[in-house]
Design brief:
This protein is an all-alpha fold and 127 residues long. The chain contains 4 helices and no strands. It is 82% helix and 0% strand. Helix 1 runs antiparallel to helix 2. The longest helix has 35 residues. 20% of the residues are buried.
């Protein structure tokens, strides 16, 4: 039981950390690149909102995974369905964007996150 919880905690923490990287490293780089193309400032602002919402969503997913893992550690009765939903979201998004963006391997990180999250969900014992 404890190993499943540690696995889930690790994934949750990694997803939370990736949300910060997405917001505080990814957006500034994207913003700078957009400015070199003379993109309209209103469009950049709108893209910023969407980008940062994605970061907030990633943070939220990481917290759900982490809190679920803590409940597994405490041997509470845990529903794993929402962890599967998070896993599926990462898997589908990563797979589609990987193909649409010309097989850019960066997007495989989403697929890997989905696989790891799905493995955590599968390891949660149903009671």
């Amino acid at each position: 039981m404890k190993s499943q919880a540690l696995f889930g905690m690790t994934i949750g923490i990694l997803v939370i950390l990736s949300s910060f990287a997405h917001a505080f490293l990814g957006w500034p780089a994207m913003h700078d690149e957009l400015q070199t193309t003379n993109t309209n400032s209103d469009l950049i602002g709108a893209m910023s909102v969407g980008w940062h919402f994605g970061s907030v969503a990633m943070f939220t997913f990481g917290c759900i995974i982490l809190f679920t893992a803590v409940e597994v550690w405490q041997e509470k009765n845990v529903q794993r369905g929402y962890i599967f939903i998070i896993s599926l979201a990462y898997l589908l998004f990563g797979s589609v964007v990987f193909v649409v963006r010309n097989y850019n391997t960066h997007f495989l990180l989403f697929v890997i996150t989905g696989v790891l999250t799905g493995l955590f969900a599968l390891r949660i014992k149903r009671r």
